[in-house]
Amino acid sequence: GDSVTQMEGPVTLSEEAFLTINCTYTATGYPSLFWYVQYPGEGLQLLLKATKADDKGSNKGFEATYRKETTSFHLEKGSVQVSDSAVYFCALRPPDDYKLSFGAGTTVTVRA
Amino acid sequence: DTGVSQNPRHKITKRGQNVTFRCDPISEHNRLYWYRQTLGQGPEFLTYFQNEAQLEKSRLLSDRFSAERPKGSFSTLEIQRTEQGDSAMYLCASRLQGVGGIEQFFGPGTRLTVL
After folding, report:
1. Which of A4, B69, B81, B114 would give a disulfide with A103, using CB separation of 3.0 to 4.6 Å?
2. What radius of gyration, in Å, describes the C-alpha atoms of chain A?
3. What Rg, from alpha-carbon coordinates, does chain B have?
4. Dihedrals φ, ψ of A108, to 5°?
5. Whether A105 and B40 lie within 8 Å, measured CB to CB
6. Closest residue of B to A105, CA-based?
7. Judging by DSSP bridges, how do beta strands A75-77 and B31-37 pair with one another?
8. Which residues in chain A are closer than 8 Å to B4, comparing Cβ atoms?
9. Per-residue pLDDT of chain B (115 residues; tens, 9 = 90+)
10. Which residue of B has its CA nearest to A42?
11. Closest C-alpha among A79, A35, A39, A41 to residue A58
């Protein structure tokens, strides 16, 4: 079945450091790919998405590129801030399907 | 704010009791989803509605669980005879199917603790 594997955490960084969270997926066809973020005490928020191969999603300085050849959707940010401390979830939605399949989440802590 | 709302935000109950959660989706969103999130894991799909029709149920949804969306607006998720293994965060999401984007909008969740 469809599944998402993402880098285990927790990840601790200093402010202005570079962040990468790896995400790979298994799916048939061309799923849509997402990164959701969950800030402390809040619900899941969509961070960015990509719906086809080579698409790049971007938001709030975060980027991820849909790589069909490596079945990956790695999340990157060039210079993190303390406010980026959160749990990040990679997710996919198969074509012609309705539900999201999530990875286990990666906890990121950014220290001043 | 017109986002997805869920009530209660926290529920503590004793094993064997029944609990009911409510989700109010974004107005006019025709699709409504329930997910369950256990500690250290990502959300797992439970069920979804297209308007008032429940179209799919995960095998995670045992016969102790029932969900309704009687008028195609708010939804309730009931757990009967709760067990300690039911302790989790229950998330609701909604989406407007057929128009524009594919994003599901999530509520803040209801955290259930079964003692």
Report:
1. A4
2. 13
3. 14
4. -115, 130
5. yes
6. B42
7. unpaired
8. 43
9. 579 999 999 999 999 999 999 999 999 899 999 999 998 899 999 999 999 999 999 988 899 999 999 988 999 999 999 999 999 999 999 998 776 667 899 999 999 999 9
10. B108
11. A35
